[in-house]
Amino acid sequence: MTDTLATAAAYEKADQLPDDVRAPLRELILALADSKRVLGLRYSDRMLGSPTLEAGIAASSMAQDEWGHARLTYALLGDFGDDPKALEHERDAAEYRSMNALDAELDGWHGMTAAGLLLDMALTAQYAALAESRYTPLRNRVQKLLDEEKFHFQYAASWARRIAQVPELRAGLAAALERALPQALQWLGRDEAPGARRMVDEGVVRDLPSDRRARFLARVAPVLEEIGLADPLGVSRDAGEWTYTGRLDWAGWDDATRRAGGSLDEVTAARARGDKNRALLMD
Amino acid sequence: MKEPVYEVFARKSREEPLRHIGWVNAMDGDLARVYAWKTYDEQNWAEMCVIPRSAIIPVDPGESQFVTAARDDHEDEIVHSRGTGSYGGADVAVKEGR
User: Fold this and answer.
1) ipTM beyond 0.95?
2) Is B98 inside any structural domain?
3) Domain count, chain B
4) Is B53 contained in some domain?
5) Which residues of A touch B27 (CB under 8 A)?
6) Long-range CB pairs of A137-144, under 8 A, 24+ apart, other chains included
7) pLDDT per residue over A60-78, tens digit each?
8) Which chain A residues touch B31 with a CB distance below 8 Å?
9) B77-92 pLDDT tens trace
10) CB-nearest partner of B30 from A51, A57, A158
């Protein structure tokens, strides 16, 4: 963001945003909200049967955090002409824009840990890029969320360190991280995506997807290195900057939905929508 | 392995003193911070701290609820084998290989 933009007037309402910024920003917010909602579900599935009572309590609290973040993020879309309630409770599974990586349940505690360290932190990297947005409703909501995410990071990093020390669990953790890492990196999007550069130019988003990938790696790569898995996962440091040496496959990638095909399953979507308690839904 | 006990202290405003609000079992200080924050979240705390119970040196070990005995072989090394009755909080064994 240039100095000129930094001092430019804030956007108080979505209809003040230029058309070529409003549309991609709506897509981004919906992808964030859906991902938060499904991540909360995945966390909640792991809170019983956790390694320790405290770990389960924390997982439960993190699941609630994610649902709170989702609710807050869906609510933003009311300003874009959407009906947040309809978005939360009335969409088919195929309409969900949650991360591909969250389509499947988290496999055991190593899956929970990989999701916390990589998927949750990719979402956090994206939210962090909105913390100083010129679009005021976003800027006002993001900081508390980022504060809560600091605990999610500590939780995941500590469990990654712990699991990596247990010989019979280390391979499972490495495999879960290997699956999640390219998906997390890819979810942050392409610089060439429609509107990506315009959102930066307008000061709505801090930086381009490639910059966010670098920030994301700067946060998680030291943990991967500490547990001896950075190299095996294709993460290396060059002149102080962390890079991913693997290849991200953009074939089939949809910039708007931030997905590469597939769909959330209907059972999970029904849980996300709250179908079983539909009769009790309040206005 | 054993998971040590961390005592949790907090205050609601800068003006009031830290007070003991509970304890958590955690593998390390980082997790103890997370567990404390997530477990004792019923108040809007201004500050919360966790302290390894093993770091608390009782002035009068006989009366302390945190630490209850000094080992014979190391005068300064504190263990906490008692004091778990109504107060609670003991080292717990963590199963490997879950």
Assistant:
1) no
2) no
3) 1
4) yes
5) 158, 162
6) A137/A12, A137/A14, A137/A76, A137/A79, A138/A29, A138/A76, A138/A204, A139/A10, A141/A72, A141/A73, A141/A76
7) 999 999 999 999 999 999 9
8) 54-55, 154-155, 158-159
9) 444 444 443 345 667 6
10) A158
